Structure formats: C-alpha cells, structure tokens
C-alpha cells in the first residue's frame, strides 16, 4: 500500500516516507508555489532528475532527527524553531489540502539562522540524553528504535545531522532556496 503524508494545520501525519532536500533558484521556487499537489510532485520529481539541483536524501531519518534535536516528532513542527524548520522547512505548500504530499520550502534569507541553530548543537550532550524508549513512546517514524541498536542509530542520526548541516551551508554559499519533500 502506498504511504501518504498528510499535512493538517501545521501538524504532519506520516505513513512510510522519505525525506529529501533540494537546492533551487528563485525562479523555480516562484513556479513551485503556484502548483497544486500532483503537478507540484511531478515538477519536484523532474527537478530531482536534473543534476544541477543539488539534493540531500535523509531517507527515513527525518522524524528521528527532528525528535533528537527538538524533543518532539516532526508530526508536530515547531513554528519559529529553527531546528524544527531545518527538518521540515519554513513555509508549507498546499497546506489548505489535507490529502497532499508534504512539500515545504526555506528561503535563502532563513538559512543563516538555521545554520547557526544547527551549529549550536552539542553532540556529546545529545548522546548523553539519547533515550530510545522516548523515541518509542513518541512513536517516532520509522519503527526502528531498539535498544540493541542504540549506538548504530545514534551514529546514523549524527551522520544525517552533519550531512544536513553541510547541505544547508552549501545552499547558503550558493544563495539558493531549499525545497523539503517528505513523501
């Protein structure tokens, strides 16, 4: 069964999804904000094939990384929280329709604060606080948070964090915007 990602009034509900971040120019962003869901997804898929659009695929770790950095699931994005916005974007497209794939964007102007927030993270402190029972209790996607894999899972999340920070720094240096898609 295909999984859907439903966005309802700043809450995200998910069922089997991959997170992807893509650098885009202003002209492309202007085009994307005018599109409805099916056309929007088709255009994003088309852009994914274009090698000029650098992207980072966080796979299924987006919710886990959001929880690690903010203490809440990405299904409850924290408006104005730059760590939350690093994972789920700042501005949501198609937010009026609850039966759409999740696509958001972050403008170049927001990248500096997001990068600063990401750089302020103390990995050693996160490691001390890393408690997989909290991930399970919060029902963090995907259902992989087993104590037997604690070290490996933490390493994967840190790897995702570092890659995402690096991606945002590159986007900032190129003075481009970022599209976040989770579907």
Automatic annotation (TrEMBL):
<dbReference type="InterPro" id="IPR015068">
    <property type="entry name" value="DUF1877"/>
</dbReference>
<protein>
    <submittedName>
        <fullName>DUF1877 family protein</fullName>
    </submittedName>
</protein>
<feature type="coiled-coil region">
    <location>
        <begin position="30"/>
        <end position="57"/>
    </location>
</feature>
<dbReference type="InterPro" id="IPR035944">
    <property type="entry name" value="YfbM-like_sf"/>
</dbReference>
<dbReference type="Pfam" id="PF08974">
    <property type="entry name" value="DUF1877"/>
</dbReference>
<keyword id="KW-0175">Coiled coil</keyword>
């Amino acid at each position: 069964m295909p999984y859907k990602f439903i966005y309802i009034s700043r809450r995200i509900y998910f069922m089997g999804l991959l997170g992807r971040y893509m650098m885009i120019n202003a002209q492309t962003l202007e085009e994307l904000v005018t599109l409805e869901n099916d056309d929007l997804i088709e255009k994003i898929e088309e852009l994914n094939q274009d090698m000029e659009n650098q992207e980072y695929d966080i796979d299924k770790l987006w919710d886990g990384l959001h929880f690690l950095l903010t203490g809440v699931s990405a299904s409850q994005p924290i408006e104005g929280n730059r760590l939350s916005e690093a994972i789920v974007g700042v501005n949501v497209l198609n937010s009026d329709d609850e039966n759409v794939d999740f696509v958001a964007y972050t403008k170049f102007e927001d990248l500096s604060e997001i990068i600063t927030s990401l750089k302020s993270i103390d990995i050693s402190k996160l490691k001390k606080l890393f408690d997989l029972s909290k991930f399970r209790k919060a029902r963090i996607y995907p259902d992989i948070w087993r104590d037997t894999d604690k070290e490996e899972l933490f390493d994967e999340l840190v790897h995702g964090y570092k890659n995402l920070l690096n991606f945002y720094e590159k986007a900032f240096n190129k003075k481009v915007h970022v599209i976040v898609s989770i579907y």
